[in-house]
Amino acid sequence: MTSTVPNAVQHTDAQPPITMFGPDFPYAYDDFLAHPAGIGQIPATEHGAEVAVIGGGLSGIIAAYELMKMGLRPVVYEADQIGGRLRTVGFEGCDPELTAEMGAMRFPPSSTALQHYIDLVGLETKPFPNPLSPATPSTVVDLKGESHYAETIADLPQVYRDVMDAWNACLEEGADFSDMNRAMRERDVPRIREIWAKLVEKFDNQTFYGFLCDSEAFKSFRHREIFGQVGFGTGGWDTDFPNSILEILRVVYSEADDHHRGIVGGSQQLPLRLWDREPQKIVHWPLGTSLASLHNGEPRPAVTRLNRTAGNKITVTDASGDIRTYRAAIFTAQSWLLLSKIACDDALFPIDHWTAMERTHYMESSKLFVPVDRPFWLDKDEITGRDTMSMTLTDRMTRGTYLLDEGPDKPAVICLSYTWCDDSLKWLPLSPNERMDVMLKSLGEIYPNVDIRKHIIGNPVTVSWENEPYFMGAFKANLPGHYRYQRRLFTHFMQDRLPADKRGVFLAGDDISWTAGWAEGAVQTALNAVWGVMTQFGGATDATNPGPGDVFDEISPVELPED
Q: How far out from the chain centre does Cα 360 lie?
């Protein structure tokens, strides 16, 4: 529960940090960003040229920021608010510093490109209180009406340690875990590609659950059930059981489910600070220029139509009725919007890419937070000496409950429930207060002597991402057989492979990423799209710092046969 990493992998401070850069496309985006030569330039004759950036989430804002630094003029369109699924909200009537993360709230150290931007805008991070992590004083695992209190995994019954051992053995025996983890840590690209090519061919049609069932280590249904309900790292994995095992391997190889950190003050600060940031190294634009200043403070409104016009231009109509035409556009919003809310020409993309977008599978997700007067859960029970309340994993409706505080004398926040997929859909018909009542009832059965309600100082805030009109889900997650579709979408930035009349629109964002559900994927695909736009405008990277497209042929994702 503390780690998905088998004991065979010994980590030391002397080892390089792992990065979420593979195994499908093992390109070191963090090195690319850190290089003193920068990430590329365009001819002076193109300075000031406009590029549409559709979607003001993290991917869109990073793409716009980097294009602006090159001397282009990004025009950002945003239907809702800057940040996308980096959404931090406050509680009405409460201290404004008391916030809740409705979307992304925990980030692994392997998100090294993301960390570049966190550092760039001066944000701080702190350990996130996952189950049994060092940042979590205690954890309660409650299954089938039986609760177990633990400060470390050693405090849980032996069956839980058996399940952890089974998971580690399953990874090692079935997916060459230690070998791949070591190759990724050492950035051994040939070895990564050698291992992964075999696994893609072997597992493209396999579910996560099927992978477990095929393992001798998980021959026990009881062990598979516990693993699904409790899991290791962030909690239960059963909502991922129908998904492709390749998606899960991408997470565990890169340690994306371990050692999480939260952004102090809220994750939405990252795109908001980039929006306002005035780069010190900028081409064409005067010092003091920011994305905000180029937009007079506000992005353009929602896009309602996208079509191709003469000269293979991209024409964008927005909700105000304004029509503008561009030589290039980056689309970072949820891809299903191209099938529903945005009127599109079929000519925007090749038919195979339309098919891939239609087949994209999204995970539902719900959260509900309440503000409380203080972190009362740290009070000790007079009889047992245990914490009054703990980070809680359960098979009840709440599934995962997180306790978040900034110190013993300050107001705090409880995430009463964080759920995915079918567990999320169960909340959909309920109002925020109805959700809270059900959650408090469930938690009251686990903590019968704790009156959570008396500590609540404000109204709950909640989200069901599947019900958000511009998102329709929390994040992409491939089903078995979807590898080919994902490859088409991720590699779309390599537009010299496309017919001339299908170029000019670049896809980016979480939907396009190999690392589904992690902000790192939004960053990486944004940089891919920036490289594509730069290339279209006749630009290039410095020879000492090749971009993702420059090395594409050496590290391109495995290509499975279509017949």
A: 16
Q: Rounded to whole angstroms, how far apart are CA atoms 257 and 260? A: 7
Contact in structure between 284 and 69 (CB atoms under 8 Å): no
pLDDT value at residue 12: 41
Each residue of 499-514: pLDDT tens digit? 999 999 999 998 999 9
d(Cα 523, Cα 515) in Å, to the nearest integer? 11
Tokens of residue 220, six digits: 């026990």
Q: What is the CB neighbour count within 10 angstroms for residue 546?
A: 18
SS3 381: coil
- Other residues' Cβ atoms within 10 Å of the Cβ of residue 217: 19
- For residues 124 and 272, what is the distance between their CA atoms, to the nearest angstrom? 15
Dihedral class, residue 399 (left if φ above 0, else alpha if ψ from -120 to 50, else beta): left
Q: What is the pLDDT of residues 417-462, one digit of tens each?
A: 999 999 999 999 999 999 999 999 999 999 999 999 999 999 999 9
Is the CB of residue 58 less than 8 Å from the CB of residue 227? no
Using alpha carbons, select from 519, 547, 551, 556 the residue that is nearest to residue 33: 547
Computed on alpha carbons and rounded to an integer, the radius of gyration of the chain in Å comes to 24
Sequence letter at residue 269 = Q
* pLDDT, position 192: 96
- What is the Cβ-side half-sphere exposure of residue 29, based on CA atoms within 13 angstroms? 26
The candidate with the shortest Cα–Cα distance to 222, out of 156, 162, 148, is: 162
Count Cβ atoms below 10 Å from residue 340 Cβ, excluding itself. Answer: 11
Beta strand segments in 125-203, E: 125-127, 139-143, 146-150
E strand or H helix that includes residue 67: helix 58-70
Cross-strand bridge partners of residue 365: 420
DSSP three-state, residue 113: helix
In 3D, which of 205, 214, 215 has the Cα closest to residue 242? 205
Q: Are 221 and 205 in contact (CB under 8 A)?
A: no
Segments of the chain scoring below 70 in pLDDT: 1-17, 232
Quote the CA–CA distance of 233 and 252 in Å, as a whole number.
10
Q: What pTM was computed for the model?
A: 0.96
Instruction: Count CB atoms within 10 A of the CB of residue 283.
Output: 15
